[in-house]
Amino acid sequence: MGRRKKPTHLKIVENSRDRRDPKLIEGEPVPTQPLAQAPKHLSEKERGTWDFLIENSPRGMLKALDHFTVQALVEAWETRRQAQEKLRALPMLVRIE
C-alpha cells in the first residue's frame, strides 16, 4: 500500500528535496479563485486581523474555499482579544459578602 503522496502545493511550500519536476499528482484538485475581500459584517478590528492574515500567509496558499475558515479564525481571535481586555480591567478575585 505505501505512503500517500504529499500534495504538490505542500511540496512547493516546504521546499521539498524531491528533485523531480513538481508535477501535479493525478486527480489532485486545483483551487482557482483567490481569497476574496473581508466580509462586510466584520468589525474594523476584525478586518485589520483579516488583512494581516492575508498579507502574511504564503502567496497563493489561501483560496476562495478558505473564506469561511479564515472568517471563523478572525472572529475567534477578536472574541479572545475582547475577553482578555475585560479580564485585565477586572480584579482577578471577586469577594461576595
What does this 3D model show about the protein?
The chain has 97 residues and is an all-alpha fold. Helix content is 43%, strand content 0%. It is built from three helices and no strands. Helix 2 packs across helix 3. It is elongated, with a radius of gyration of 20 Å. The model has no long low-confidence stretch (mean pLDDT 81).
SSE order and pairing:
Layout: H1 8-13, H2 44-56, H3 67-89
Helix pairs in contact: 2-3
Helical fraction equals: 40-55%
For the residues shown, what is the average pLDDT?
81
Instruction: Give the radius of gyration.
Output: 20 Å
Based on secondary structure, the structural category is mainly alpha
N-to-C SSE string, H for helix and E for strand: HHH
Outline the biggest β-sheet.
none
Percent in strands:
under 5%
Keywords:
single chain, 97 residues, mainly alpha, 3 helices, 43% helix, 0% strand
